[in-house]
Design brief:
transmembrane, Cytochrome_b-c1_su10_fun, membrane, 96 residues, 0% strand, transmembrane helix, mainly alpha
Length: 96
């Protein structure tokens, strides 16, 4: 037996016998989890992270909307609002 702190032994293996389950007790099942995070918590975390991602992407697009490459390659290709980002210089304002 492996000795732990203060001489208390570690549980190194499962016992060879099965545990008793009363036929009158509740019918329970162990919830699947990954490192203690179950499906409900994973859904909440996923929704939160997805929301932050969408807000971050919208912020980045609005922040870089005046960069010509972003405006031409990304923003002008949106179906409904793409025409709003078309910037044409009138011939009278062109110095060349």
């Amino acid at each position: 037996m492996v000795q732990g702190h203060h001489g208390i032994g570690f549980a190194t293996a499962k016992p060879a016998y099965g545990t008793y389950k009363s036929p009158y007790g509740p019918d329970y099942k162990i919830q699947p989890n990954i490192r203690g995070i179950g499906p409900g918590q994973a859904l909440k975390i996923g929704i939160t992270l997805g929301s932050f991602g969408v807000v971050g992407a919208i912020f980045a697009l609005q922040f870089f909307a005046e960069v010509p490459k972003v405006r031409k390659d990304i923003l002008q290709k949106f179906p409904v609002v793409g025409d709003y980002f078309v910037r044409e210089i009138p011939p009278s304002d062109n110095p060349f």
